[in-house]
């Protein structure tokens, strides 16, 4: 939810943000109009309510000759107050709907444009020279690590089993991520995977991408697509001590319907309905958010260095940001079988957008409560198995294990095929 005072003071900065996102500038005027309507309606209600209270005080002291007129006006005002209160409530609801539909103001410097207009900030690591690389599914099946056939049999398309060394690799990867998070002072957290509608709405996931979310209608609960949601809602309605940023690392299973992606990336475990992830989440003062964002990105890159895969960092274009993000950096790992980089982490600066929705505040130097800033970033997820397997494959079908992951697979430095082919 954006700052309405800033919108009133400088609507042009919001128009520029909308242009950069490729979104309609008219929504700025629509929101301004809704704000003005609400303020006028509230002023009208307060005015007639004040007059009603004043008449209520005059009536006991009025002369007999005046009471009839005062009673008539009191009755008249009662109806006006009721009507004005209804109009004000409707205007308040209309303004909230308009606010909830409006995306965050992008951060200065974020690239304008759509999905393909990102800016590459850096490439890290050497791409391996592999003749006829096998993809992660072929490697995983040979290692006895991935079973999509039985996943589909049991649960349907885009489900899978991780078995044997596949399960060990994922558990090791996530434990490595948690260990790193603890090293840097984040609080490890295992979060709920079912949340109330207000938690999902508060983080900005019930807008344009609501079709991606699984909903349990009988219980009016949602399955999370990221632990960002329960971590953001963890401190909803609270006033925090933010002398230093408050940081968490959440481990959870995640669920996504992948609506609208029919036929895309259907092979293997790149785009699936269920996966596991460790997500970083930070609450801080707004003036700290830019530097905090770069800090989360550096921690993501440190994890990628531990698993020894080449990657690049991109500055995501405004039109490819979610509604909550003011800026987002992705790390994309090299996938040899595809000859391209694929996203493995994202970190977003959501400024005060989510905190305004969830009523999360801190006290400034003058003791006044102010909305906090929130940020999130992926530290490890199931998808990382793809570049790990593919970049470390060898010609005989075996896969080298990055040194940091070797303790989690029984100390082995190489995983050998358990089947032929």
How would you describe this structure in keywords?
Helix Hairpins, 12 helices, three-stranded antiparallel beta sheet, alpha+beta, BirA Bifunctional Protein, domain 2, 421 residues
Structure characterization notes:
By secondary structure, the chain is an alpha+beta fold. Helix 2 packs antiparallel against helix 3, helix 3 (26-58) runs antiparallel to helix 4 and helix 5 (136-142) packs across helix 12 (385-391). The chain folds into 2 domains: 4-100, Serine-tRNA synthetase, tRNA binding domain (Helix Hairpins); 119-415, 2-Layer Sandwich (BirA Bifunctional Protein, domain 2), CATH 3.30.930.10. Strands 1-11-12-13-16-10-9-4 form an 8-stranded mixed sheet. A 3-stranded antiparallel sheet has the order 5-7-6. 41% of the residues are buried. The chain has helices spanning 4-9, 11-21, 26-58, 64-100, 136-142, 148-155, 165-183, 197-202, 228-233, 289-306, 353-358, 385-391, and strands at 119-124, 146-147, 161-162, 187-190, 194-195, 215-216, 221-223, 239-240, 246-255, 274-284, 311-315, 327-335, 340-349, 361-363, 369-371, 373-381, 399-400, 414-415. The radius of gyration is 27 Å and the shape is elongated.
């Amino acid at each position: 939810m954006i700052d309405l005072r800033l919108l009133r003071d400088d609507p042009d900065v919001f128009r520029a943000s909308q242009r950069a996102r490729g979104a309609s500038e008219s929504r700025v005027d629509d929101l301004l109009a809704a704000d003005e309507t609400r303020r006028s309606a509230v002023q009208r209600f307060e005015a007639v309510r004040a007059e009603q209270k004043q008449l209520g005080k005059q009536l006991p002291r009025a002369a007999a000759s005046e009471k009839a007129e005062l009673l008539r006006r009191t009755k008249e005002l009662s109806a006006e107050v009721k009507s004005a209160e209804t109009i004000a409530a409707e205007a308040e609801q209309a303004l909230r709907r308009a606010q909830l539909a409006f995306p965050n103001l992008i951060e200065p410097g974020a690239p304008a444009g759509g999905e393909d207009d990102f800016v590459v900030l850096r490439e890290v690591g050497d791409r391996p020279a592999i003749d006829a690389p096998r993809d992660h599914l072929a490697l995983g099946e040979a290692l006895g690590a991935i079973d999509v056939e039985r996943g589909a049999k049991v649960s349907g398309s885009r489900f899978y089993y991780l078995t044997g060394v596949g399960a060990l690799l994922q558990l090791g990867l996530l434990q490595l991520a948690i260990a790193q998070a603890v090293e840097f002072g984040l609080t490890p957290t295992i979060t709920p995977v079912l949340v109330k509608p207000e938690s999902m709405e508060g983080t900005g996931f019930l807008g344009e991408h609501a079709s991606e979310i699984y909903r349990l209608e009988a219980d009016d609960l949602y399955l999370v697509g990221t632990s960002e949601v329960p971590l953001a809602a963890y401190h909803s309605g609270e006033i925090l001590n933010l002398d230093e940023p408050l940081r968490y690392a959440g481990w959870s299973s995640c669920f996504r319907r992948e609506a609208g992606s029919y036929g895309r990336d259907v092979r293997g475990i790149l785009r699936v309905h269920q996966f596991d992830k460790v997500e970083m989440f930070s609450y801080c003062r707004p003036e700290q958010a830019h530097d905090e964002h770069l800090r989360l990105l550096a921690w993501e890159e440190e994890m990628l260095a531990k698993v020894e895969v080449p990657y690049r960092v991109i500055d995501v274009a405004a039109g490819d940001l979610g509604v909550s993000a003011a800026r987002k950096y992705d790390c994309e790992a090299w996938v040899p079988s595809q000859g391209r980089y694929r996203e493995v982490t994202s970190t977003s600066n959501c400024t005060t957008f989510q905190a305004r929705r969830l009523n999360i505040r801190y006290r400034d130097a003058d003791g006044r409560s102010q909305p906090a800033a929130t940020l999130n970033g992926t530290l490890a997820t199931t998808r990382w198995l793809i570049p790990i397997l593919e970049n470390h494959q060898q010609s005989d079908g075996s896969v080298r294990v990055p040194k940091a992951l070797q303790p989690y697979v029984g100390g082995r430095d190489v995983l050998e095929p358990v089947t032929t082919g």
